[in-house]
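Weekly modeling sync, notes
Attendees: AB, CL, MP (scribe)

Item 1: holo prediction request
CL wants a bound-state model with BES before deciding which constructs to order. AB pointed out that an apo prediction alone won't tell us much about the pocket. Agreed to run with the ligand included and paste results into these notes for async review.

Input as submitted:
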Amino acid sequence: MPRIDPHSFFDDAQPLTRSWSLRLRVDFERQVLAGSAALRLAAPAGGPLDLDTKGLSIRRVTAAGGAEVPFELGAEEPILGRRLRLHLPAGTAGATVEYETSPAAVGLQWLAPAQTEGKRHPFLFSQCQAIHARTLVPCQDCAVARVTYDAEIAVPAPLTAVMSAGPDGQSPGPAGWRTFRFRMPQPIPSYLLALAVGELEGRDLSPRSRVWAEPATVERAAWEFAETETLVARAEALFGPYEWDRFDMLVLPPSFPYGGMENPRMTFLTPTLLAGDRSLVDVVAHELAHSWTGNLVTNATAEHFWLNEGWTVFAERRILRALRGDAAASMGWSIGQKELDDSLERFQDKPELTVLRTHLEGVDPDDAFSSIPYEKGARFLVALERAVGEERFDRFIQAYLSRFRFRSITTEQFCAFVEEELPGALARVDADAWLHRPGMPDGAPRFVSARLEEITALAEGWKAGRRPAPAEVQAWKPTELLVYLQKLPRDLGVEDCAWLDRELELDGRGNHEILVQWLCIAARAGHAPAFPRIREVLSKVGRMKFVRPLYQALGATGPGRALAREIFAAAAPTYHALTRRVAEGVIEKYPA
Ligand code: BES
Ligand code: ZN
């Protein structure tokens, strides 16, 4: 039988895992998680059971009653890791794997105290999507094999553990240790397993929402995300009841490689969202939207990733439109268009990665990652929405969510369902072009607003000498300034930069989207006064969305390249493994 997921040893002809019980000790000295994972099967079964592992040392496998279960670890494969094959005696209900993780586990980042805000305690966080859960737990690491889980996590006092699960009490462990218990009663794909440990404090935002962060950050975080309950209520009005009990969030140290990660009941967020003006809550809206379009209905494999992210961008902009109006939503679409264009350019030589339904045999999902499934995917859904009308599409959304809830589906299943519910709609939008052909189809939806056109015209008039009045820019919304910077000509010189820097005071912006957009312009131009700020950002912030374009922009000039190499040499050991790989990949392509 061919495997259904090119990124997993999961075999759908074998027994299915139904739940995990994790008992893990967080060893900061050795940088490993050590303990056991008890896997329960959906029904008692026997024969081979193939699990994914990467870097795990397996000590022993036992069945209920303690009988040893024979196992073998396959050869290391570059993307997948090693297959762990258990030979289950007939009628086995579950197996317990005793193991520990590797200090090199890509799914974990172990931070020294110096990399935290408080500087006194170490910090650990996980990032399992797309295929890194196997570096934490031996498991069927394929989204089709949803599991519930419970966990007992022992951490050194006085640290706190949080997970993508509900808290289920804590107890003092052996001297100097605390044990935190968790329970996730709803079935989740393995990529939504999440754990973080550090000096953490929580602030309630509403009866069902709390933000966690290091003590020095938590007040700022509570202020920034004070609107969360409004977002949840808006999302519920659009997509139905929130199904995950609590919507808590954790603000991580700045090396977190993403903007946000929709870990259920505990969204992980980059601290770069703390702009001080609530201007970046679209990321919260996005991670929240995944509670429906993603965590409830997700992609079967990375080849259908657009189903997860395209739907979520669509849902995020719907929430934003309900909250802030049409003009704000078109700004969102415009910013997304820029990200889409950049990704299309980056994959010029890999058009096969610009289709929505991808084929990723032999391709690392982290290398295939781009804004294409997000923005092309969302535009495909808007095309369908426009073809059938918003009202009908809204009913379709409800039907889609209730039909596939708690499942992980393929593009083909999605299309069959659209054909059932909205007959003829796929053909009308030329779904084949969206799904299977590279680049953007002709007639893709456009998003316009008077304000967007004004700002675009102003930016495009730069070469003709048009400049905004600085006082006027002070009154712009942050997204307007961001769009303006994105639309400026790409080849500005140092004099242009000096003007922008002086008149618009861009260096001191707390909004990292604006700051980084500006620093990229400055880097491309070789505007040396911005170099210290670039160094500061790249030495601290690990969010790949910022790191990649900054290193890329530095590549445009000799002094920029020298700076990039110097920053990278110093910062690489503190980067997340994923961030390091992205930065390395960019620098390797610099001209010698
Ligand atoms: N699930 C993603 C992050 C992710 C994707 C992690 C693939 C690992 C592999 C998350 O929901 C996301 O899309 N985050 C975006 C924010 C957003 C507003 C588009 C990000 O991190 O920038
Ligand atoms: Zn997302």
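Recorded for review: The chain has a mean pLDDT of 97.
Action items: CL to compare against the apo run; MP to circulate these notes.
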